[in-house]
Specification:
Layout (H helix, E strand, L loop, with lengths): L9 E6 L2 H6 L1 H14 L5 E6 L11 E4 L5 E4 L4 H13 L8 E5 L1
Parallel strand pairs: 1-2
Antiparallel strand pairs: 1-3, 3-4, 4-5
Helix pairs in contact: 2-3
């Protein structure tokens, strides 16, 4: 996957603190990367972050699309991660029932 710098691309951030890893964040990260690769999507930056203090809601995934608010999904597993890529990243459809926070 090609990773580019800049504000004009979508970013996905996976919580990979100890709590996130214990809750399955590695599988989530792998699923996101695999789904992006399968769809030949190269203009999305995928990164990780440490604990954000919401341990009980892990694994957490942020989706930041240009010009839109940041959306944080909670209790993400590999299947949800693939759906987040397909529905939100590709089609712009926020999956409301999985959202824990939205922020400008």
């Amino acid at each position: 996957m090609r990773v580019r710098e800049g504000e004009k691309e979508t970013r996905i951030v996976v919580g990979m603190g100890t709590c996130g890893i214990a809750a399955g964040a590695r599988d989530v990260m792998s699923a996101i990367l695999a789904e992006l690769a399968a769809r030949d999507i190269t203009d999305v930056t995928v990164s990780q972050t440490g604990c954000v203090g919401l341990c009980e809601y892990e694994p957490l995934v942020d989706v930041i699309r240009p010009g839109e608010e940041k959306v944080t999904y909670s209790y993400v597993n590999a299947d949800k991660a693939r759906q987040i890529v397909n529905r939100h990243v590709v089609n712009g459809q926020i999956i409301g029932e999985w959202v824990i926070a939205r922020k400008q």
